UniProtKB/TrEMBL annotation:
Example GO biological process: cytoplasmic translation
Matching InterPro entries: Ribosomal_protein_uL10 (IPR050323), Ribosomal_uL10 (IPR001790), Ribosomal_uL10-like_insert (IPR040637), Ribosomal_uL10-like_insert_sf (IPR043164), Ribosomal_uL10-like_sf (IPR043141), uL10_eukaryotes (IPR030670)
Biological role: Ribosomal protein P0 is the functional equivalent of E.coli protein L10.
Record-linked Pfam families: Ribosomal_60s (PF00428), Ribosomal_L10 (PF00466), RL10P_insert (PF17777)
GO cellular component, one term: cytosolic large ribosomal subunit
UniProt record similarity statement: Belongs to the universal ribosomal protein uL10 family.
Residue ranges occupied by any Large ribosomal subunit protein uL10-like insertion domain in the UniProt entry: 113-182
Residue ranges, annotated region (Disordered): 284-321
UniProt KW keywords: Ribonucleoprotein, Ribosomal protein
One function term, GO molecular function aspect: large ribosomal subunit rRNA binding
Protein's UniProt name: 60S acidic ribosomal protein P0
Organism: Carthamus tinctorius (Safflower)
Length: 321
């Protein structure tokens, strides 16, 4: 077989990427820093079925996306171009975006702290026996790690934050971690951005539950309601509050004047003689319980009769005096 030229490779790559853009509407843009070929192969195998991973130079990917857009007139995929920055790859999928992202996250490989590497996480050296002989204490002294000699070996006394996230790994830190056999970092494909039918959003959106969405919707409704009430602009959300407020205003006018309406009549009646409602309330509350209700009603009836007798006596004395 003859050697395939660069031009032929580009044509083949363009065809492959354009075909994927025709077949899929969902794409995950993933960072592939420090991901080896074997690890990538395992990820491909794990995603086989619903998803396809495509790596390549950013310039080639951008070129192919533009070609596809010109050929099909579909400009939605142009939203991918600004995302193709750094060492990234594309995961085309027809599966559930959250599940695919979780599957990708499973394939992580532990890695040593190499000199000059930017730490993706904080590195803490735990306390305990290191198994190193006392001649190795110079490493710990350089890094200000408190130690003691215990049974002929170096023991770390307290946990020490050796490297902070975002800092570069120094030669002393790398040498110490290697001696202790600590592989503090783990690498895999990291989903940076999600593309779904022209929309581009952060992968954190995939973690939102229905309860989160309902809570955000309710917060939005409350803000719209508050704004509508403040500027007296009717909306569906604010209408019930506006009607209640209008009813309160009308009721206040009815109470202060001779004007009345059916809903105001009962309020006026209560204001004229609150005792009617005070006596009726316990009887109504206890009406659902059989024997106890009957027992409760008896004292209520007695209470009604006693004032009547007293008033009759009073009335009698006042008539005959």
């Amino acid at each position: 077989m003859g050697k395939v030229s660069k031009a032929d490779k580009k044509i083949a790559y363009d065809q492959k990427l354009c075909q994927l853009l025709d077949d899929y509407t969902q794409v995950l843009v993933a960072a592939a820093d420090n991901v080896g070929s074997n690890q990538l192969q395992n990820i491909r195998h794990g995603l086989r079925g619903d998803s396809v991973i495509l790596m390549g130079k950013n310039t080639m990917m951008k070129r192919s996306v533009r070609m596809h857009s010109e050929k099909t007139g579909n400009k939605a995929f142009l939203n991918l171009i600004p995302l193709l920055v750094g060492n990234v790859g594309l995961i085309f999928t027809k599966g559930d975006l959250k599940e695919v992202r979780e599957e990708v996250a499973k394939y992580k490989v532990g890695a040593p702290a190499r000199v000059g590497l930017v730490a993706p996480v904080d590195v803490v050296v735990p306390p305990g026996n290191t198994g190193l002989d006392p001649s190795q204490t110079s490493f710990f002294q350089v890094l200000n790690i408190p130690t003691k000699i215990n049974k002929g070996t170096v023991e770390i006394i307290t946990p020490v934050e050796l490297i902070k996230k975002g800092d570069k790994v120094g030669s002393s830190e790398a040498a110490l971690l290697a001696k202790l056999g600590i592989r503090p970092f783990s690498y895999g494909l990291v989903v940076l951005t999600v593309y779904d039918n022209g929309s581009v959003f952060s992968p954190e959106v995939l973690d939102l539950t229905e309860d989160d969405l309902i809570e955000k919707f309710a917060l939005g409704v409350s803000m719209v309601t508050s704004l509508a009430l403040a500027i007296h602009y009717p909306t569906i959300a604010a209408a019930p509050h506006m009607l209640i407020n209008a009813y309160k205003n009308a009721l206040a006018i009815a109470v202060e004047t001779d004007y009345s309406f059916p809903l105001a009549d009962k309020v006026k009646e209560y204001l004229e003689d609150p005792s009617k409602f005070a006596v009726a309330a316990p009887v109504a509350a206890s009406s659902g319980g059989g024997a106890p209700a009957a027992a409760a009603s008896a004292p209520a009836e007695e209470k009604k009769e006693e004032p009547a007798e007293e008033s009759d006596d009073d009335m009698g004395f006042s008539l005959f005096d």
